[in-house]
Design goal:
Layout: E1 5-10, H1 33-43, E2 49-53, E3 65-69, H2 77-88, E4 96-101, H3 109-116, E5 122-127, E6 130-131, E7 135-138, H4 139-147, H5 155-159, E8 164-168, H6 181-192
Parallel strand pairs: 1-2, 1-4, 2-3, 5-8
Antiparallel strand pairs: 4-7, 5-6, 5-7
Helix pairs in contact: 2-4
């Protein structure tokens, strides 16, 4: 376990392409994406784990998961990130946070551990020459995003301004963006080959 690592699941979108909020989409075994993402973060050493949720949706009950409903529908992902970080920063026990979009439910705990080992201000996993999710942010970088010192408008823009490590992993789940039922089916089929 990597001490001092928090987890943030970005699950505040309405899931228009999926047909409903992706936080509540399910893998074939019945587990919701949100619960699977929380399990991967916790198994990789993240504590605490927080998820942003769409405004007005019920919180998912999962061990060790705190849910933060967003104040309004339609917020940009960067605003969801900022609000989640502001909430997490009240806990002084972490030095870095792993940020995982909920539409990447196939990420392995080993990837979380590999990112947590990076001493860089930010780290991105890569598999087969392609970058993916989740992303590690140091506490100072998270503080800068939360305060507006790093205004975005996207996390990608922020990462272009800081030293960001490339962390090679043996995890095709980092590139499995399951933002539609068809994308999930394709990612699962690739994983079985």
């Amino acid at each position: 376990m990597a001490p001092g690592i928090a987890g943030l699941i970005l699950a505040g979108g309405s899931g228009e392409r999926y047909g409903s909020p992706k936080a509540f989409a399910r893998l074939p075994d019945g587990r919701p994406f949100l619960a699977v993402c929380a399990e991967a973060l916790k198994a990789g050493g993240a504590e605490p784990v927080l998820a942003t949720l769409p405004a007005g949706t019920p919180a998912l009950q999962a061990p060790g998961l705190e849910c933060l409903p967003l104040p309004a529908p339609g917020l940009a992902m960067f605003d969801s990130l900022r609000l989640g970080l502001q909430h997490l920063l009240a806990d002084t026990g972490w030095r870095a946070v792993i940020v995982l979009p909920v539409d990447h439910p196939l990420v392995a705990p080993a990837t979380v551990r590999a990112l947590a080992a990076s001493p860089s201000p930010a780290a991105i996993p890569s598999h087969g020459g392609k970058h993916g999710h989740p992303v590690l942010l140091s506490r100072p970088l998270a503080e800068g995003i939360a305060s507006g010192a790093h205004p975005g408008p996207t996390l990608r823009e922020v990462l272009r301004t800081v030293a960001t490590a490339d962390v090679p992993v043996e995890d095709p789940g980092i590139n499995a963006n399951c933002n539609t039922p068809e994308a999930l089916a394709a990612a699962l089929a690739r994983r079985e080959r």
